[in-house]
Design a protein that fits this description.
The protein is mainly beta and about 350 residues long. The protein has 2 domains: about 100 residues, no CATH class; about 260 residues, membrane protein fhac: a member of the omp85/tpsb transporter family (Porin), CATH 2.40.160. The protein is about 5% helix and about 60% strand. It is built from 2 helices and 19 strands. The chain has a 17-stranded antiparallel β-sheet. Strands 13-14 form a two-stranded antiparallel sheet. The protein starts with a helix and ends with a strand. The N terminus is likely disordered.
């Protein structure tokens, strides 16, 4: 799903107290300036939604006696296509960052595009489908070492497909999940994080590994297992330029529903292709980015990605992989924390994508 990009820009503006983006609505706990509540209206436009209007807010706080920052966001939007998006992402740290919990609770009425599974149809052969579902994504981790966290994960969705193209694949082919269904996925997750900066790393590693399972005994309508690893490393040159490398892999066994297959595309994984343009049980992706300061708070980025999907690991070949690349500009909202607004233009084979959001793709 494409996130509400303008809302994300405005929310970061609120966190930083930047009146260009928003005005502070309230302040709580005057004795602790780290605890604040903000709110503002939201308006945006996207091809999938037409115009959307709503409100957004954030509660930024520290648990008493702790030094780690936490936040809870809340966003509510209604669009002219009669779509509703309600979601509350959160990130909470406590006990001197010994414990870490993050995730999202939301409810969506949305429209997606579907191009098929594996090597899909041409770009102009996509079909649209409408969905209605609640989502819960919870992660709870404990620090085992200075940079290593290990914990539990639980994901839940009750996916109701309310409308499909009558001439499309979802209506006429035996595709797992084309009638919707409930997903209930417990699992384990580990994070190794030695980055020198969370928002704009110049050195270190970030590696997230997870293993999840859906089955009737977990309450799911589907039976499958997903193993995923997302690894990034960063290097800073003598000119203060940053080289970032990312490797991403997803490997599934069983029968996952089509909407939870490993997918490429969007603003983070193979920019230039529509989100979910390629999907299958197995995915491999490599990305590189070169990030350079220009002047004042302005920076530039060039990036390249090479990845693909396949039904089995042994089915990967050069025919499965596609190349995408592009460039973008950065505006640093916060010079201390190095929080950037990014504007990227990505280009694939016969397609392109443009992205406005907060933070780097990896």
């Amino acid at each position: 799903m494409r996130l509400i990009l303008i809302a994300k820009v405005l929310l970061v503006g609120m966190i930083l107290g930047n009146t260009v983006f928003a005005q502070q609505a309230d302040s709580v706990n005057q004795d602790n300036p780290k605890n604040r509540v903000f709110a503002l209206p939201v308006a945006f436009f996207a091809p999938e939604t037409s115009w959307g209007f709503g409100g957004a807010g954030i509660y930024a706080f520290r648990i008493p006696g702790d030094t780690a920052d936490s936040q809870i966001q809340a966003i509510a939007v209604y669009t002219l296509q009669q779509q509703l998006l309600l979601y509350a992402p959160f990130q909470i740290r406590w006990d001197q960052n010994r414990y870490f919990s993050y995730g999202e609770i939301g409810y969506y009425q949305y429209v997606y595009q579907f191009y098929g599974i594996g090597n899909p149809a041409p770009l102009d052969a996509q079909e649209f489908y409408e969905v209605d579902f609640p989502r819960i994504r919870l992660n709870w981790l404990r620090r085992l070492h200075k940079n290593l966290f290990l914990g539990l994960r639980y994901w839940f969705e009750n996916y109701k497909i309310t409308e499909v193209d009558s001439d499309g694949l979802l209506a006429n082919e035996n595709i797992t999940g084309n009638q919707g269904g409930l997903n209930s996925s417990p699992g384990i997750v580990s994070i190794y994080d030695s980055r020198d900066n969370v928002f704009f790393p110049g050195r270190g590693w970030y590696v997230e590994t997870s293993l999840q399972h859906d089955n009737t005994w977990t309450g799911s309508d589907f039976n499958y297992t997903t193993f995923a690893v997302d690894a990034s490393t960063y290097f800073t040159t003598s000119w203060n330029h940053v080289i970032a490398l990312n490797g991403y892999g997803v490997f599934q066994r069983g029968e996952p529903p089509f909407h939870l297959l490993a997918a490429l595309g969007g603003g983070r994984k193979l920019r230039g292709y529509f989100e979910g343009r390629f999907r299958d049980k197995n995915l491999l992706l490599g990305q590189v980015a070169y990030r350079s300061p220009l002047f004042w708070r302005i920076g530039a980025v060039a990036f390249l990605g090479y990845g693909g999907v396949a039904p089995q690991i042994t089915d990967f070949s050069l025919n499965n992989f596609l190349l995408a690349g592009g460039a973008g500009l950065r505006f640093m909202l916060d010079t201390e924390k190095k929080i950037n607004v990014r504007i990227d233009a990505g280009f694939g084979q016969g397609t392109s994508g443009y992205y406005l959001t907060i933070g780097e793709a990896f």
